[in-house]
Amino acid sequence: MKVLALETANEQCSVSVIDDTQELFFQLDARAKAQTQTILPMIEQGLNDLGLAVSDLTAIAFSRGPGSFSGVRINAAVTQALAWSNDLPVIPVSTLQALAQAAYRLHGLTAVTAVLDARMNEVYVASYQLDAQGIMQAVDEEQLLSYEQGAEAVKFTVVGSGANLVQETASEYKNVSATAQDIAVIARAAAKTENWVSAELALPVYLRDNAWKKIPEQGKA
User: Fold this and answer.
1) Distance in angstroms (rounded) separating the CA atoms of residues 7 and 39
2) Residue 132 belongs to some domain of the structure
3) What is the mean pLDDT of residues 192-215?
């Protein structure tokens, strides 16, 4: 098994390649909103370093949102293009689940409420607990909520960019952010059971139906 994992939904860009047991390649570009320029060169570098072609991969995993509208769109488009042209399955991973997985990887937290700043005085929220395989699994639905509603939805330790928007004192883990490493760990578990979809279903999830109308208001490109 070799899985390519992509993360651009958080305004950063990272790429990981894993096999059944280990990470083979990881690169992160932390510059904000540079995904369009960096994602393809990073993929190319990772595959070249490993002596692989895209067609050698088992699947491609990507953060399907919710998150930055342009970042989610880039991730889905690149994944779909690569998977379609090489007849590969895809593994869509929730950005909130990846955030929860990052909280476990970085801080050992086994139960979290993942909260991302959605702008427009709203947050993306979902809660997760660690399963026996070391994967953070959802215990409720992903939601787009006001700050007040988000505060009511908190079940566990709050992590992510929206943490102190729903709990003023929740600043300890507000800088936790997912990377392709977290997408890859979740995708590995999915790939082992062939829990994937075809390329045409590599679709973004925005939660906000009219996200495109709100980009200028969000100050996002």
Assistant:
1) 9
2) yes
3) 81
